Amino acid sequence: MRKPLEGIRVLDMSRVLAGPWCGQQLADMGAEVIKVERPDSGDDTRAWGPPWLAGTRESAYFLSANRGKRSVGVNIASLEGQQLIRDLVSQCDVLIENFKAGGLKSYGLDYASLKVIKPDLIYCSITGFGQDGPYAHRAGYDFIIQGMGGLMSLTGQPDGAPGGEPMKAGVALTDIFTGMYAANAILAALWERKRTGEGGHIDMALLDVQVGVLANQALNYLTSGEVPRRLGNAHPNIVPYQVFPSADGHLIVTVGNDGQFRRFCQVLGCEEWADDPRFATNSARVAYRDVLIPDISQLLAMRSTDNWLAELETAGVPCGPINTLDKVFDDPQVRHRGMRLPLPHPKTGQVDLVGNPIRIDGQRLAADTPPPALGEHSEEVLSQLLGLDEETLAGLRKRGVISGSGS
To answer: Which SUPFAM superfamilies match (predicted)?
Structure first.
């Protein structure tokens, strides 16, 4: 299968998660992604372990966001390193960076400087707060942005309930969403460049993204003027739509319309609820959730999760279990869809990664090379793209401008 971004070359100068996630997405789509790292230590997340890949010092965190890339170790604090980046930019279509706003200007590697070298360059900057505004100078981390951007105010048990406090998501969702938005913006810019021949500067901010994905909760506030409150695992607009205890654990019930609620009532043996004016419509159930939910909870707690799931699925009531990750990757649907992605690895023989969920014409998009060792491709990239000979490369290594050979 020919991948949609074959022929596009990306210089990925980002580290940690949002930028690397963007670069990995582009690599999965077929782009050639060159990851620029500090020669001595590389991407910060290389050290974010344990866990480590067995027999190596490659962190699981780094492995999660860097497949399909080639690593070049370049010291951009040196004049020679800065020139190498400029030379590489002249051979690339896209540059991704997540330094602080204005952080690359002192190196001559900001958009205004590089646009002179490569007028059609698509330059994507990812920061916590954007390139302008009163917070532009601040560093931004996912956890902080989940709090500032409202997500934590919506997540967790209500005040007064056991454990009732604002809660972050268990995955760095703001970083992930920012990486996906950035990849989407780059695709749009590539299409625009095809039409106009012009590049551009993409300004992605984690805070913008977090506010942007508040979705219905943001509109709940903007429409009503009422600040949404934490509801634990309940839904602000739909009832019943939450986690319930069973005799041996928990299950999720997501009743999305009145017909499903009627079938749910039949399974519970409470058909009369479907005609009760307090519960017959979703808006009524939202108003009377404090009456309805305790009764549902009492009934569901009488039987096992598997028992309820089987009966509810047969009745066409949306429901599901709460799986730990061992059960996720052993789930027959997840296995069938190939979401565990084994790739060959030079040190361990194989590394298991998580597959890209995008499929086109039945084929899953996924890069076919594992995350690189630090500087693994320095000589290869610099000789292929810039024509540097071994003597020149040896001199750059000796002066600490580059790292190479997986060092």
So the answer is: CoA-transferase family III (CaiB/BaiF) (SSF89796)
